[in-house]
């Protein structure tokens, strides 16, 4: 066990990054499984959130199944990097924003309700920063989870889920909008969530369970911040592979120890030819080097590695604004 955490902190952080109990009294059920009462569980989670170890407790939605999203980048003049990063981070649609070691030095993820809205966000960032933006939308995912096993430092295993092929209906959109910030840390969070969107608790529970079963929600649980957990080395590893080989190589790289994300993205030619991405997190650069060497050997070519140097923003994805949660599409009795 990591000595920086109490036994209860470690049990919650390591054991509940997924498979959160979607029941009326979830924190009491968690407590029963780890040998603590609900008050101790909630107090511990609030403390971890105050320390920054926890981003939120809630849903991680499947890309391309809820709204529209993309990884994007721009080349900021070094003397303006902080001002430009602040402009990018000020957008509510941007949920991750990192400086990386490359000519394209600012990397961010943007989400929106649909592609038209997303395109408008990227165009607005270009206008406000006076920097061209490259958009790199997801084409295939081999491993997208970002759960951490605090004991081994490797990604925690996630079951393969059949992903829903449909977009959420209007009631699900209201629920997603309310879920975006995460659950309130209180004994009956789903009842409180339902009250904010005029939906009975049992319907909230049923709809969330359905979205998990369909794969619309990839993971429901404690969302941790890797930097605060000690994983201070964050490398984005990219390869330019033949289109007929990329999926097979991606599947092999995805299962490698130390790889926390692996996916294929659309190229942005001529400046950005890369189509396969891996994320590698470690406690130091030295710890990541063997992983990077192994990935390059498996890919059959040298890796282009972009270490992050600063995190400007990290929060949950925001697909819909708050007004969507308040739209009453039908009356509950």
Could you characterize what this model shows?
The termini are far apart. The model is unreliable at 153-164 (pLDDT under 50). The chain is globular, with a radius of gyration of 20 Å. The protein has helices at residues 7-15, 26-34, 38-51, 81-89, 115-129, 170-179, 189-196, 201-214, 246-254, 285-299, 322-325, and strands spanning 54-61, 68-74, 94-100, 106-112, 133-136, 138-144, 217-224, 233-239, 259-265, 276-282, 304-314. The strands form two sheets. The chain has a nine-stranded antiparallel β-sheet. A two-stranded antiparallel sheet has the order 1-7. The longest helix is centred in the middle third of the chain and has 15 residues, at 115-129. It is of the alpha+beta class and 333 residues long.
Give a quick precis of the structure.
With 333 residues, the protein is an alpha+beta fold. It has 11 helices and 11 strands. 39% of the residues are buried.
